[in-house]
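I'm curious: can you give me some protein's one-letter sequence along with its backbone structure tokens because I've never seen that pairing?
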Amino acid sequence: MSKIYDYINYYNKHNPNNISFTYREENDYKRITYKELLTYINNISEYLIDYKDKTIAIIGNNKIEYAVSLLSIISNIGNAFLIDKELEKNDIEKIFTKKKPSLIIIDDEIKISFKNIKTIKFSDITTQMNKEYDFKYDKNYSGNLILHTSGTTGDSKCVLLNEDRYFGVIKELNNKWNVTMNESCLLIIPLYHIYALTSLFHGLYAGINNILEWDYKRINTVLQETKPHLFMGVPLMYNRIKDSIMEKGKNKVIIAIKISNVLLKIKIDIRKKLFKEIHNYFGGNYTFGCSAGSLLPHETNKFFNDIGLPIYNVYGMTETSGPIAINYKNHNDYRSVGEVLNINKVKIINENNEGIGSIFVKGKNIFDGYISDKHKSYFIDGYFDTGDLGYINNNKLYVVGRKNNILIGDNGKNVSPEELNQKILKNNKIHDCNIIMENNKLIALVNSELSKEELNNYIEEINSKLPNYKKISKIKKTNKNIK
């Protein structure tokens, strides 16, 4: 079996009553089995058969209509062009100049229309899902994903990925994470992101219950009501949850962590009991969470591990069909983005004296190039330039920043703003930070609750552990969020 559809069909035959999706309609949850999912996919595939080998765009929230449309298109029809629902109409139209779709499937809640492109709504998909069609499956067919991304240069680009690209990633993920059919995963990251897509495809590969949600304000509620085993989040979510926990009882939590860590040294684990209230916040079934997009701060990662709710950093990008490196059970390095997956070969090019250089990656999961862009300067000898800087140690990858964000002082030394930001943001009374350079001096723009004296002392403490060329020379307080 080499397709997601094959695995859905497998579970349809061997575990037909297992739940494939849990989704919300207003305030009620509905569930569909793997047998029902296969029927829905076949029905929508036949409904869309006139668009065979064509491109179909999907714009909307994480709803069952989105998931079924996506799976139908890539399994049986053509290219699924996934568009960020937050974009303005003009921005979407610019993206369509790179690849114009023949059809748009759009959420009823999104009130925009496009000239000269046929559009059908999620409500139409709902109706067609429940009709009876006679669909003939072609086992040799495999469609593509088209994903919009800023690219490694920050320019608007479109990436085409065939199922062959991301299937190997999914198989290796499951080998590392050992997810079982009895588990469930909350998917609240929008499905037009490669991170969310990889999580979805992995969930279907493993035969688990995939919980769809799109409203970030409902995180607490959905965790309580659906009780997921796996949670796919981003640093901002975990940082906010940690800060909220610490605000309610910092001293109590710190003492409990100290007691727990002492007991763990003699192999006594009472974290589930000791931190029962926090575990219940996540629904009580939590196995592990993942964090992607940027490196989760060390303190946040360690905090969740200390209370028995491990989080694994995951590193990847659209162009690599998802993960390049991952952390997993008994292989969780808080400062690393993880072990390089076997499907990838990572090379560090142009290393400096500290061993830090440009991260290049090669493998069957790497895309061929951007749509409507024949420029290949981002490849060297078949290795793709991620645009990131980092180093490798014992097959673990460490990312320190983006090349385009690097600041160069008059001494010729390179400074990564991300590295300094991470150090400064360890204090939960600092809400935002941006490092800039003025007159060859590093300036920290900080949004903070700390007094001027407290902030100065804090930055001075950070400076004391840094080489001279990385020291922050000046602090500017701001009451506005820094973009």
Summary: The two ends are 45 Å apart (CA to CA). The first helix runs from residue 4 to 14. The chain has a mean pLDDT of 90. The chain has three domains: 4-233, 235-404, 406-477.
